[in-house]
Amino acid sequence: MKFNNKNISLGLNVTLGNNVKIGDNVTIYDNVTIGDNTIICNNCIIGEPLGDYYFDESYQNPRTFIGENSLIRSHTIIYANNEIGDHFSTGHRVTIRENCVIGSNCRVGTLSDLQGNLKIGEYSWLHSNVHVGQGTEIGNFVFVYPYVIFTNDPHPPSSYIVGSKIGDYTQIAVSSVILPGVEIGSNCLIGASTLVSKKIGNNKLVVGNPGKIIGDVESIISKETGLSHYPWPYNFKRGMPWEDIGYDKWLKKQDYDK
Predict the structure, then answer these.
(1) N or C: which end of the chain has fewer CB within 10 A?
(2) Top-level CATH class of 9-217?
């Protein structure tokens, strides 16, 4: 990608770290901070103003922060009042509404829509075409696969919004739907096209419509190894902090650092 410095608009109080690269036709609104070595590709909008901007002459844009070493791909829109950690990346045409707190090393795939007022932990990956309703809380090391929908209105249409909560290390497979207020524990696997309508404990395998618990994830045997695939960090390391040392050593290091 070439950086031609064409048609770039920077608002007031914009802070760019060292070696930040900005593509063509990018708008960065007031009070945005972007960390070192971050790349903002063509046709992005960062710090998109909130609704009051269009009606309140005294409106002041809230602060927006994107951490260092991030990659924001073309046509992404990130609203104001978001706090995003280091090593963040998006696919193309991602929308992230206001009031989100997103940890480091997270990914949001192409055409995903984060509706705001969210909390997402570290190393969580949302693949393409994921819709996340307001109020959702997603833990650390959670993978959400394409076409998953997190809902938040138990009696639509209403003014009562209640998001779901997803525990650490849980995997949510393609085309699943998570109903409002549902809590899913840690280390779960939600099978493809599952409708989750009730609370799920830790380490559970859930499939179907409506979703039913059919066992613990440890019962899932890998065809390649003949062993249990779960907990999955022992069998997957690409892009993870234990990539070079293994999961057990990484866990011990976390305990030591505490």
Answers:
(1) C
(2) mainly beta
